[in-house]
Amino acid sequence: MPLRIYELVKAHDEWRLKNCLNLVPSENVTSPAVRSILASDLGHRYSLRPEEAPDFHVPYGNFYCGTKYADEIERIGQEIACELFGCKHAFLQPLSGHIAGLIMLASLTERGDTIMCIEERDGGYPGYGPRFLPSYLGLEVRFLPFNKAVFDLDYEACEEAIRRAKPKLVILGASTILFPYDLKRIREACDKVGAYLGYDASHVLGLMAGGEFQPEPFREGVDIVIGSTHKTLFGPQGGLVLTDDDVIAERVRANLKLKTLDNPHLNRVAALAQALAEMQEHGRDYARQVVANAKALAKSLEEHGLPVLYGHKGYTRSHQVLLNVEQLERELGVPYSRLAEKLEEANIIVDRAGRLGTQELTRWGMGEEEMKAVAGLLSGVLMGRLKTQEAREAVRALREKFSTLRYC
Questions:
Q1: Smallest Cα–Cα separation from 99: which of 206, 200, 246?
Q2: Is the pTM of this model over 0.85?
Q3: What is the CATH superfamily name and number for domain 283-401?
Q4: How far apart are CA 404 and CA 396, in angstroms?
């Protein structure tokens, strides 16, 4: 049985790393250096420093001896994160973006408070919905008015909604995110009612660090940025919390150790530090190419006859492209879920929401010209112009030309 497990892992790696085109907008690939760190001895070790858990008696030093290198690695990672995102405090320990979101809520709200966020039907992260994270903390949830015609907030209506609801926290950011927000307008509305402004940048952290998408959130008035570290930010799966506010930083620190996590998984923290260093060196070129590829993919898909949304706004300013799923289902007479399975059979990997992401293909070195080829393959499979085996062979041939990771 152990041999069977190892064989399955090898088969997965061969398929996903060498023979597929991955367009899932919430995934990426890590560099060989990051992978080697994840497999290091750090993965076996613990850490608990006095400043991390003031209510837990640690007389001095790390509760667990043997962490002198791990502590220094985490400090370096925090410094790099602060430089990348323009803030004073960075926390690399949250185990996921979801946990980072929980930490944000726990740090800035109390039971009975109201929060406002983007609704799931408008692309918002469902974890902030009434049945999920807020239910653990006794929070009321109201949704920000959204204008689907331009895929952005309805700012005038948002200002009025914030005035009426008087939330403790307003959360921007979404699972489907194409265009930056007018942070200044939301900040002004928050100030009028004394609300914090949070930004869940899970999808765009790498683009933010690379200067391509909302690159100065704290200068624009955001109090706290959280997110997962494995989408456009090409780190290991995990979470990140950032703030420029000393008081908020202390609240965040108080909600980490022995509350939302115990062992922070030191191999993951070190791997994230390495990914942040790679982002520091290569992030601007990478982020610029990700966005250029997304625009090129969207335009080419439309030229191949697929319904792509928001062409009148240039399709996107992020890594994401959004298909008009309802129109596609009407035209082809097939549920999009089945269409996604059809693409998988051709070694083209997507999600079932009509979102396409260019970050992983960019990491493999593909540019705008390759996006035209990808669009041709994807549309060919969906429209029935390419047989599955034919498409699969074409995907493999394309991937053979792009087998080395870049920007690392």
A1: 200
A2: yes
A3: Aspartate Aminotransferase, domain 1 (3.90.1150.10)
A4: 14
